[in-house]
Amino acid sequence: MAKRENDSFSIEDLMKTFIKENNLSKGMQKIKIEETWIKMMGPGVANHTTSVKLQNKTLVIQLTSSVLREELSYGKDKIVKMMNEEIGDDVISKLMLV
Questions:
Q1: Residue 17 domain flag
Q2: Which uninterrupted H or E stretch holds 96?
Q3: What count of other Cβ atoms lies within 10 Å of the Cβ of residue 45?
Q4: Number of domains in the chain
């Protein structure tokens, strides 16, 4: 019978190691960006959002409402700053609303 080690690891550490070893960090980052957009903008904006994509540090948001697109365009810099703070890294440098 193999001897059991008494080292304990947190689930968070194990998940980080698994994600790093399997090169899943970009996929996890995309999921986190989508979740952050919905959390930061709230249900009103989320209902009019059809797509959230990150392409080369540009966050591309597809909206169904032209009025909402115009309103959000006034605060692009603030949205980018808030999203980066929430994510905890400077992954977004530009916001494009389409």
A1: no
A2: strand 94-97
A3: 17
A4: 1
